[in-house]
Design goal:
Elements (H helix, E strand, L loop, with lengths): L5 H13 L7 H7 L2 E6 L6 E5 L6 E6 L5 H16 L6 E3 L14 H14 L2 H8 L6 H11 L3 H11 L4 E7 L2 E7 L27 E8 L14 E9 L4 E8 L2
Parallel strand pairs: 1-3
Antiparallel strand pairs: 2-3, 2-4, 5-6, 5-9, 7-8, 8-9
Helix pairs in contact: 1-4, 3-4, 5-7, 6-7
């Protein structure tokens, strides 16, 4: 198998071997691979993997959460990835990788574990029929997240991996753009770290669970020189009060 596809291939092989259905039972997967799962209340990390010396066993420690079951599931799947992928040792993961599946400067082991987790929880072959031939929207991402018991962010990012649309998913926290995932046909740079532009739909949401959609000036999100000054994007955003987070789906208007 091609080394570049190892994380996804390994996840698919595991699903076939265990014959599990979606949403995948992570307790079963962990047990079958020699892992036990402990939920604790660490303050310095999201998840950790400890290997038992001399044995094909280990322990996954994950931060116990009162909300965001999907996020906890992704963390567990991520640590299982570290356990099964060649060359990965014991780990402590802070959650600051933003579930990146690709990108320059990212830690290769973290990216590989995230790619494994995404494929384990949201198999591309099952997501593709749900997103192809239609404009991606928050409603579609929410339905996929519910179907696979995944977080909204994980579902949105996996949609970007398989869609044929020119679009991107952006996560903003406390009004600051924190991370984004472009589709493979998206060609514009989206800077992170800055405040949301007042012309964006995302900037108008807040203080309650709300979503909205509209055409917005492209310069509200990107300063790419390849973008025409009058260009627009279709933006669909949702605000999630428990996390002070906004998820935005941006689609290039042709």
């Amino acid at each position: 198998m091609a080394a570049s596809r190892l994380p996804e291939d390994l996840a698919r092989s595991l699903l076939r071997h265990l014959r599990v259905e979606q949403p995948v039972d992570l307790e079963l997967v962990a047990f079958a691979t020699g892992l036990s799962i402990r939920r604790e209340n660490p303050t310095s990390f999201e998840g950790a993997l400890t290997r038992i010396p001399g044995q094909a066993q280990g322990v996954v420690v994950v931060r116990r959460v009162s909300r965001g079951w999907g996020r906890e599931r992704f963390t567990i799947a991520h640590e299982i990835g570290h356990y099964l992928l060649p060359g990965h040792g014991s780990t402590v993961c802070s959650g600051d990788t933003g579930m990146m599946l690709r990108g320059r400067g990212s830690d290769e082991h973290e990216v590989a574990a995230n790619r494994f987790a995404a494929e384990l929880l949201l198999p591309a072959a099952e997501v593709v029929p749900l997103v192809r031939k239609q404009r991606l929207s928050v409603a579609i991402v929410k339905s996929i997240a519910q179907k696979f018991s995944a977080s909204l962010t994980a579902a949105a990012f996996q949609c970007m991996e398989v869609t044929e649309e020119s679009c991107a998913a952006v996560v903003s926290v406390d009004g600051i753009r924190r991370s984004y995932r472009p589709s493979r046909t998206w060609s514009y740079f989206l800077p992170v770290g800055g405040m949301l532009d007042h012309r964006s739909v995302a900037a108008r949401l807040g203080f309650e669970d709300a979503s909205d959609a509209a055409e917005v000036p492209a310069i509200a999100w990107t300063t790419s020189k390849s973008m025409a000054p009058a260009a627009k994007l279709f933006e669909n955003s949702i605000y999630l009060p428990p996390y002070s987070m906004t998820l935005s789906i941006l689609t290039a208007i042709r």
